[in-house]
Each structure stands twice: as structure tokens, then as C-alpha cells.
Design a protein that fits this description.
By secondary structure, this protein is mainly alpha-helical. Strand 3 and strand 4 form a beta hairpin. Helix 5 packs antiparallel against helix 8 and helix 12 runs antiparallel to helix 13.
Length: 294
């Protein structure tokens, strides 16, 4: 005869059963639950008593449903623009499908949606190549989720609130003959994004409650960072994106500028004239922590 489970075993069993993506029946029969308490769905009343109105399985089901309902509420809070675009019923169906594939495995809800944009990309319909509107709509949804998730990661991730940051005058003080060798250290939160439409405008519309329409497809590049505990984003050009990406990769300033110049070989003079303004603005905005010379 199996000895009576202790409190810790019962707690771990309940967690395995309630959070199982296949429901309480499959949860009871799962290896994780069986390691704690050896039961089948038919004899679960040995551990969980029924009530006058509900069976033991039905009572467990209430907790399981509440668990998933709370997780879905978390997605409502994290992805308000995607929720608006899809509507609540469709959005919840996507989230529930995601939780079946990527159940929560972390102690923090901050990790819960980490794979959600990837899940949307994996499960998007193949579509008909002749129907560009359908493809644009799917791309829009994936990009929307990607940007909203990036906001969360930037907000919860490392920042530079206690660092002085790069002073514009420090950069200006470097002599021209040494400038090409400078390595700019980016802010810890700085990230670059390449999107297929300006979904940041749609997100802004939702935040300002203007009920926006999805924007038409258009290649979009963004810089995203956190400053003073507030997540900020800025639309940048493809050339600026290439320049900043090279800096993020740790390349010296001369090499990074050469990468950007390769995108506009016939407009090198214009690029040279804009660089000072770009770096002055980025330094003031908090893109960089410091400038290093070898």
C-alpha cells in the first residue's frame, strides 16, 4: 500500500495537474504528477474530495481554468496593440495555443511570452503568394508582437540609469586622427529592429486611444532603448541602422562608418555631413555609455 503523501508532494502534484497543457486528466497521468502521487483520474477522489455539486476532476478543472485565464490576462496587459488588432476571441485562442506549445517553465511571468512572436511566425498560414494583403496582415501581426515583446524586454532588462553615459563633449574632444579607432560602448538596453511595417505608429495609436488602422507595408528600422526607467524608441534610416549595428557588434568607428557608407556609395558627401548631427543626437539621447580608444 502506498504511504500517504506529505504536504510537499501534494503541492507539487497539484502544480503538475493544474498547469498541465493537456488538462487535468492528462496532468494526473503525467510523469511529473505520478512521481509525487500515484493516482489515476478514476481514483483521484482518494486525494481530492468531491463537493455536493462537483466531482473531484471538476473541482480541479476550476483551478486549471483559472490558471490559464490569469496567464491570458497577462498577455492582454503585455500585448494591447495585438489584442486590439485581432480582437479578444482570436487573440485568446492564439495565446492558449501558445501556452499548449510553450507552457510556463519560469518562476517569473516576465519570461512567459518570450517565444510568442516566434510562435506566431511558426504557425502563420502559408497563404497564397498572389494575395499580398494576406501576407502583409500576417507580417503585421508578427511584427506587432515582436515590438511589444521588445518593449517588455527593454523595460525589465539591464539599464544604465546609474551610469553617467557618454558626454557629447567627450566625443568632440577626440582628435580627428584618432576618431576612426574609437570604439563606442552602447547602452545596455539599446537594441535595433528591422520590421516590415511601421507598427510603432499603430502601437502609439492604441496608447492614445485613436483606434488606428494597420499601416501599409513599408520597411522600417527602429532603435529601442531605456532611459530614466522609460522605454523609448526612434525610427531610423537603413543607413543609420547599419552604422549602429556595426557599433553594437564592437567595430571601431571608422569601420562602422564604412559599413554605412557602402549602402550609399554615391552619397558619401551627404553622409559625412550628417554624421556629427547623428552622433550628437544619439549621445544626448543615451545610446552610448562611453568611448574607448585602443
Amino acid at each position: 500500500m502506498q504511504p500517504s503523501p506529505n504536504l510537499g508532494q501534494i503541492q507539487r502534484w497539484l502544480q503538475a495537474v493544474i498547469t498541465h497543457p493537456g488538462g487535468v486528466g492528462e496532468g494526473i497521468e503525467s510523469d511529473e504528477a505520478q512521481q509525487e502521487v500515484t493516482l489515476t483520474p478514476d481514483d483521484v477522489e482518494r486525494l481530492i474530495l468531491p463537493s455536493r455539486q462537483l466531482s473531484s476532476l471538476e473541482r480541479l478543472g476550476i483551478y486549471a481554468n483559472a490558471y490559464y485565464a490569469r496567464l491570458i490576462e497577462c498577455f492582454h496587459e503585455e500585448f494591447p496593440a495585438l489584442l486590439h488588432a485581432l480582437g479578444e476571441e482570436t487573440f485568446d485562442a492564439f495565446v492558449f495555443g501558445y501556452l499548449q506549445t510553450y507552457p510556463s517553465r519560469s518562476y517569473t511571468l516576465g519570461d512567459l511570452s518570450a517565444d510568442f512572436p516566434g510562435f506566431l511566425a511558426e504557425t502563420r498560414p502559408a497563404g497564397d503568394e498572389s494575395d499580398s494583403s494576406e501576407a502583409d496582415w500576417a507580417d503585421f501581426l508578427v511584427d506587432l508582437a515582436t515590438l511589444e515583446r521588445a518593449y517588455s524586454e527593454a523595460f525589465d532588462g539591464p539599464g544604465d540609469e546609474h551610469e553617467p553615459g557618454l558626454d557629447v563633449n567627450q566625443l568632440a574632444a577626440i582628435t580627428p586622427d584618432r576618431l576612426a579607432d574609437v570604439v563606442l560602448v552602447p547602452a545596455a538596453s539599446l537594441r535595433l529592429m528591422t520590421l516590415r511595417s511601421p507598427v510603432q505608429e499603430y502601437i502609439s495609436g492604441i496608447r492614445h486611444k485613436t483606434d488606428p488602422l494597420p499601416p501599409p507595408a513599408q520597411p522600417t528600422w527602429l532603435a529601442l532603448w531605456r532611459r530614466d526607467y522609460s522605454v523609448r524608441r526612434e525610427a531610423i534610416t537603413e543607413c543609420q541602422h547599419a552604422l549602429l549595428q556595426a557599433i553594437l557588434a564592437g567595430r571601431p568607428l571608422g569601420e562602422a562608418i564604412a559599413v554605412a557608407a557602402s549602402l550609399a556609395p554615391d552619397d558619401a558627401d551627404t553622409l559625412a555631413g550628417e554624421l556629427n548631427a547623428w552622433f550628437s543626437h544619439w549621445a544626448t539621447a543615451g545610446f552610448f555609455r562611453q568611448a574607448r580608444l585602443p
